[in-house]
Amino acid sequence: MIRFENVSKVYPRASRPALSDVNLEVERGEFVFVVGASGSGKSTLLRLVLKEENATQGTVLVAGQQVGRLPQRKVPRLRREIGTVFQDFRLLPNKTVYQNVAFALQVLGRSAHAIRQVVPETLEMVGLEGKEKRLPHELSGGEQQRVAIARAFVNKPPILLCDEPTGNLDPAISLEIVRLLDRINRTGTTIVMATHDDDIVNQLRKRVVELKNGHVIRDENKGVYGTGG
Amino acid sequence: MRLQFLLGEIWTGLRRNLSIAVSVLLVTTVSLYLLGLGLLAQREVDTLKGYWYDRIQVSIFLCSQDSGEPNCAGKAVTDQQRTALKEQLEQMKPLVENVYYESEQQAYDRFQDQFRNSPLASNIRVGDIPQSYRVQLSDPTKYDVVVSAFEGAPGVGRVQDQQKTLDKLFKVMNGITIASLGLAFIMLVCAVLLMVTTIRQAAFTRRRETGIMKLVGASNLTIRLPFVMEIVLATLAGVAASVGLLWATMHFLVVPYVAKSLPDVALVGVSDVWVIAPYLAVLMLGIAVVTSWATLWRYLRV
Q: Are residues B31 and B123 located together in one domain of the fold?
């Protein structure tokens, strides 16, 4: 589903590469934790998948497409295949829960009929039924992240990228969020989650890829957070 | 839903950025108003040229008994000289289209008729205006050929060319045209810069929305269209306002005042506003679309 072949990324004016010679393969339907300290290259890895950045060297393949060779006009189509969740939720503060989720479908030109059908289903799935008319600031952090997940998933993308989705949440809520992601994963969605929340990684026992200074230093199934190398 | 969503986005955008949208409207109005004035002045010059070129004549005034012209030396034109001049004029066809002879009596009558409301009329007697040949040219710009052929010829007092009088008027009109077009150009530059600023500002205040749009894979058109449409709407309102102002200028100022004081001069009218309006609209909309698209390309990269 996602494949990195000898990928390096050097930002202009940076002293060392953000990623160096990374090889990684994520199969369809996998759940992968990408762990590592701040600045280890986790976010860069996700940005390369989204073509927010281009690799300096090597090939990034997403759903069979070479992301580096993709012309700009085809980037929107790539991003429709990928849902994205961030640490800071990125909700629209003046839109309700329902409108925030519907927005993702509206900008893709979906029909009103389809939106009325899919949005309530998705909100129910993430456990927000009955809160459709709330504004983001009336929700707890965990609930806001559920809205963000609903928005990322409402278009049923085959891939879900999560960049520190629990970074702003307390441990109990974090675990609920990851359980929700786990449920989404069981519907066949590939999930790549960057995190440095060791509790969660250790509890879920999924595949763990550890980055340090841009290198993959560990890649194991049913892994734990580890000692940080 | 698609259209409804687009309209909703435009409406929110305009409401949030109302003051800037209004300033785009005003700058558009003023620049198009000046441009319109320039174009109308130019049309006036063209109208006048057409009008006068139909009537323009070179007048060859013949000598009379008490004419003060040095070429006459105090003698009236003889019949022989007059026939010779007439023949010479006939030979200059086709440049010379028509030749009319105007006797002293006819000249007096015409003057009395033209200035019937003026005290000048009663001070003129038959003979004060000499007899003349009125020469109509097929190409009014070549008047100097006729002037040089007849100036100083025997029996000719003075050759008067009305083109020279008109040239002064045309110079004034051209001055108005150039001045208003120059100002219009400066205002158009202002309009473009203001549009760029407006879009930068709008793109900045809505970076959250556009960021999410990009992430969920909205097309460039979906992301940019609301911005472009906001500018286009403000511009359209400006076009309407400027055309309204031009109409008001013609209807309330030019037609009642200028036209009344110059009854035998052909003037541009309200209908000319409708002729130039489509050009103004197309020009400004073109500028709006190109400017906003180029700015968005620069500030809303995927």
A: no
